[in-house]
Amino acid sequence: MTSATIVAIGEPMIEFNQARSDDASTYLQGFGGDTSNMAIAAARLGAHVGYVTRLGDDVFGQLFMDLWAREGVDASGVTIDADAATGVYFVTHGATGHAFSYLRTGSAATKLSPGNLPQDVVGGARLLHASGISQAISGSACDAVFAAMDIARGRGAIVTYDPNLRLKLWPLPRARAVIFASLALCDWCLPSQDDATLLFPGAAPEAVVDACHRAGARGVVLKRGAAGCVISDGRRIETIAACRVTPVDATGAGDCFDGAFAARLMAGDNPFTAARFANGAAALATTGFGAVAPLPRPEDVQQLLNQAVVA
How far apart are the first and last CA of the chain? Predict the structure, then answer.
């Protein structure tokens, strides 16, 4: 198989989501993991995508291999680890909302390291995508992400980076240090409004964008959910309004944005056009339940964007 144009690196996780019914003991099996979601989103939108991770030699690992095969994601950068398990998380629902419980300590993906990085897969990409979660799961995985960034940059590839800051995974001071080091190595930083609130408390959107540029990010897209997004290439800054949809579940919408943005960059769009398309794709991702099922196809996004222009 030829080298994937886009390569994402990180940890996929099997999801068990508590059924919204009287029987709270019933869980629906799904798929999660921010960079896996991003890879599938980009593949559904026509990009040639590969994924780098480690999976357990177990049923859950095979489920992911089957998923990526169905979605057209190249798994040649995936290693099966006989000594560790595939990560799992549970979603429960209560009066105060939903809660996440993770079984990822010592998972196969946490065993990623610079020494077992598939350098040929990473080096063959035109765009590498990583996230703060990819770095937070273990020290060796963090080192692997930095090594992958170095390889990609050395080959002239674009590096996109989503901070995706999760304080359950690491303390804020370490997260800030790693994230800011990563901003200096990326071509496009893709923070969410939640990330911005933690990293730059009280800062207005344009101030967040400016702070990311000062940290070294060449381009920035601040994803603001229902408020749309703000994009800057360092010379021009633009606010893109959100597309009007009826949202039911925002799970994975930011990952969908990342995948759509990368897919359109690789298709030849300029970053501002790519961000408009990604804005529409992310909106559609909120109209169904789960991180993977509602990820849109190109014609769906184009139809939504056409409706927005008419409106």
Answer: 44
Residue ranges covered by each domain of the chain: 6-12+34-85+113-306
Q: How many angstroms separate the CA atoms of 40 and 167, rounded?
A: 25
Give the strand pairing for 127-131 and 219-223.
unpaired
Q: Helices 34-44 & 59-71, crossing angle to 10 degrees?
A: 30
Distances in whole angstroms, Cα of residue 67 to Cα of each of 30, 37, 60, 73, 137: 10, 11, 11, 8, 22
Nearest-CA neighbor of 183 among 155, 205, 151, 209? 209
Return the CATH superfamily for domain 6-12+34-85+113-306.
Ribokinase (3.40.1190.20)
Place of tokens 């390291």: 113
Distance (Å, whole) CA 21 – CA 290: 16
Which of 102, 112, 130 shows the shortest CA–CA distance to 14?
102
Q: Per residue in 192-206, pLDDT tens? A: 999 999 999 999 999
pTM for the predicted model, two decimal places = 0.94
- φ/ψ of 227, rounded to 5, equals -95, 5
* 71/137 Cα distance (integer angstroms): 25
Of the candidates 5, 85, 15, the residue with the CA atom closest to the CA atom of residue 39:
5
Place of tokens 């000594």: 83
pLDDT in tens, 226-285: 999 999 999 999 999 999 999 988 888 999 999 999 999 999 999 999 999 999 999 999
